[in-house]
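If you are new to this repository, start here. Below is one unmodified record pulled from the training split, so you can see the exact layout before writing a loader.
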Amino acid sequence: MEALCLLHILLAWCLSCFELVGAELQEQAILQAINQELRVPGWGDANNSDYCTWQGVNCDGKIPDDLGSISELQILNLHSNQLEGPIPASIFVPGKLEVLVLTQNNFSGELPEEIGNCKALSSVRIGNNHLVGTIPKTIGNLSSLTYFEADNNDLSGEVVAEFSQCSNLTLLNLASNGFTGTIPQDFGQLMNLQELILSGNSLFGDIPISILSCKNLNKLDISNNRFNGTIPNEICNITRLQYLLLDQNFIRGEIPHEIGNCAKLLELQLGSNILTGTIPPEIGRIRNLQIALNLSFNHLHGLLPPELGKLDKLVSLDVSNNRLSGNIPPELKGMLSLIEVNFSNNLLAGLVPTFVPFQKSPSSSFLGNKGLCGEPINPSCGTLYDDHKAYHHRVSYRIILAVIGSGLAVFMSVTIVVLLFMIRERQEKVAKDAGIVDESINDNPTIIAGTVFVDNLKQAVDLDAVVKATLKDSNKLSSGTFSTVYKAIMPSGVVLSVRRLKSVDKTIIHHQNKMIRELERLSKVCHDNLVRPIGYVIYEDVALLLHHYFPNGTLAQLLHESTRKPEYQPDWPSRLSIAIGVAEGLAFLHHVAIIHLDISSGNVLLDANFKPLVGEIEISKLLDPTKGTASISAVAGSFGYIPPEYAYTMQVTAPGNVYSYGVVLLEILTTRLPVDEDFGEGVDLVKWVHSAPVRGETPEQILDARLSTVSFGWRKEMLAALKVALLCTDNTPAKRPKMKNVVEMLREIKQN
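And here is the target side for that same chain:
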């Protein structure tokens, strides 16, 4: 019986790994495959399609009662399997069960009181179901409980104080249920609590002072409830607090000036309450605010404090629907990271400061302020605009002379350029009239050599069409240190990616056989995360490498272009899979003694399923990058990815590849460019990350908040991956791990 019950779990795990398309046929195939391998007693003929009659196979979509008889069961994960019915009390027998994951199913009924019997339980995740009733008080028996997530159910009653007996509790998530009452005072005993998420319920009363005793708390989310007290002056006694979400309640009183002491806050949500008074200027001291500052839909009055301009990391500012007056302070131009603003429906007046985030915002972000004028509301400010112009007419005489002098210099430069252009145009016209320029030669260069390695593509690829595609800038996809990539559409309809090498060693052209042998060898490299050449073309002194076309572009485009689009949905599991895929590709290259010359996010291609493939693997075999240049980037690749030791060794190495990969991993974690003016002069992404402790920033503040704030699990995985990136980017090459070890570390993060 124990073996059959164990099989239940195995089947549930197997089935959850497959898509639901043709689910019944897939289930049958899986069961038959298991039977063929294990010869399970009671299953009879493996060809019998009526698997629901097999012993131990349950087709009613419910958890079998006898599952609890597995005395050695430690982990039960049935996430997202369309299971239904009640959670059987029989699975909560005293035993070794440590982890219970039943999320995203259709379970109904109440959570059995017998859950308190499983003293070894450390993680309970039952969110996104249809559970009803109250949390049983026996939950207090689980002394090992670390995570408890029951969000998005139909649970009700009061939040039981017995959670306070779970001294190891790190995360408590009861969001989006029907809980009523107050937060138990005893929660102040939870010294290990890091996240308390009670949003989307009907809780009321004051924010209990006892909660402020939870010194490790970094997220307090009680938004969308009926709390009607005030914000405690001592709120920042929680020194590790990073997320304070109190919006959509009935919280009254003033925002305490002590709020400025919450030095590590990343997000402050106070919108949709009945707060009064002014905006405390001390908020400007919260220099780490990044995600949002939301004070909208309150009864705040007075001026906007200029100190808000010190929040240079803030992305979203919303002070709409209050009674704020005066001008928008020009000091707000210091908010360099600002993307979203909303000043609407206040009593603000004057000229909207000229600031890109303001001008790019929709006019609705400023409407409802009768005294405001200027872009983006209207192009003119009337009298105010005339006064503004008059001011500029009163500039000093020296400035006028300087401007005139500069203007003359620019005019002379432009004139010279135009004259040179006209002379060149005339010379080309004369040459063309004389028959010197042969248009047909330019459009159809003579192909010296070329072939396609893939048999089923030889008829579909036209080499002349390949060459012509690279002569048009409109076909250009990207440009790197060693090559420019073009899109080439064949007459047959086949789409290729063509890489034109920038600095071809002439000896390669003259020794084509060696080049062809290298390309043929690389075309047979068998790894899913490497871009293999499928052919080549040589004409004049130009070499073109042919590859399959990748519709989703590069990792750089995904991170730094797609993420700016409004419809972009951040997804950490996908990014982790990409990081692992790139690491696996590089580990394979090192295994076959190939050192990559230019590892960067721009050289990671994404196929239709966003599987990553490392490109430019041919470069190290075809080019000698040290010839004809003294630029370190020619030896080591793209700026921002270059290991520090390359400056004096001028030689690419495997540890150098690991460093460059570490930069890519930091890009994935932070969504920051490898080189950015925001880091400061002489500071790249690696230095910016490594110097975070000096700036007083925590590791959490380095991560892309759009990802790390989605769930505790995502943030935990991202922090673990950050440690790997820090190892990879160590200044000392000998201290960096090998790529195969990087793969192992990242796989472990994903599995755990």
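Two things worth knowing about this chain: Residues 438-549 form a domain with the Phosphorylase Kinase; domain 1 fold (CATH 3.30.200.20). The chain has a mean pLDDT of 81.
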